Amino acid sequence: MDLNEIVAANIVELRKEHNLTQAELAEKLNYTDKAVSKWERGESIPELSTLMLLSSMFGVTIDYLTSDKPRNQKKEFTLPKTIKTNRIIMTAIVTSFVFIISTIIFVYFALYLNRIVWTVYVWSIPASMLCLAFFNWRWGKRKWSFYIYSIFLWSIITAIFLETIQYNTWMLYFVGIPIQTTIVLFSFLKK
Predict the structure, then answer these.
(1) What separation, in Å, do the N-terminal and C-terminal C-alpha atoms of the chain show?
(2) Is the same domain home to 109 and 180?
(3) Closest CA to 59 of 34, 84, 40
(4) Is the same domain home to 58 and 115?
(5) Structural domain tally of the chain?
(6) E strands, 23-106, where?
(7) Does 97 share its domain with 168?
(8) What angle do CA 182, 188, 191 make, to 5 degrees?
(9) Are 88 and 141 part of one and the same domain?
């Protein structure tokens, strides 16, 4: 088995294990799905920088991607659990940073402008969902996207409603129904 075939088999195995389509993997790597297809057929091999990105994305080393050992013998090539833990902590830090900024804005308005703008915390929810969507796209699992996008949709509608409540804009919630339906339908797409 030559190196192209070994890397191809390992990419296919890891992609399927992470429930990604070729198109989804290509999108994460900023490649076309045709390039991923060529890698998986063994017609070409990703360049070193892409192998590094793949190894980071799948939580393995480059040695894992280039090894033809059976999967149960390649355990020494998997990245330690600390990387997964660090990714979760990094996501939590960035997401909590959104609420820190909201608190700073709230305190500034309260102290210097004599206004209480509690809605800044409502706006923090869709902003934090955008952060979660990014990290989920980068490191997470596709199944969480449904929840993240749904919370984003309804929290942004609620934030807009609360900002325009004096105009009796409760019908904004009707806009969310077809969008939520679309999110649900996307969640049923085959991987």
Answers:
(1) 29
(2) yes
(3) 84
(4) no
(5) 2
(6) none
(7) yes
(8) 125
(9) yes
154-158 long-range contacts (CB < 8 A, ≥24 apart) are 154/180, 155/122, 155/125, 155/126, 155/129, 156/126, 158/122
- Three-state DSSP class for 78? strand
Instruction: Determine the Cα–Cα distance for residues 126 and 134; give it in Å rounded to an integer.
Output: 12
- Positive/negative CA dihedral, 60, 63, 67, 69: negative
What is the full per-residue pLDDT of the chain (191 aa) written as tens digits?
788 899 999 999 999 988 889 998 998 888 998 999 999 999 999 999 899 888 888 878 888 888 887 666 566 566 667 877 888 899 999 999 999 999 999 999 999 998 889 999 999 999 999 999 999 888 777 788 999 999 999 999 999 999 999 999 999 999 999 999 999 998 887 65
Contact 64, 10 (CB under 8 A): yes
Residue 21's domain spans which residues? Answer: 3-77
Tell me which long-range contacts 87-93 makes (C-beta under 8 A, separation of at least 24): 87/135, 87/139, 90/135, 91/131, 91/132, 91/135, 91/139
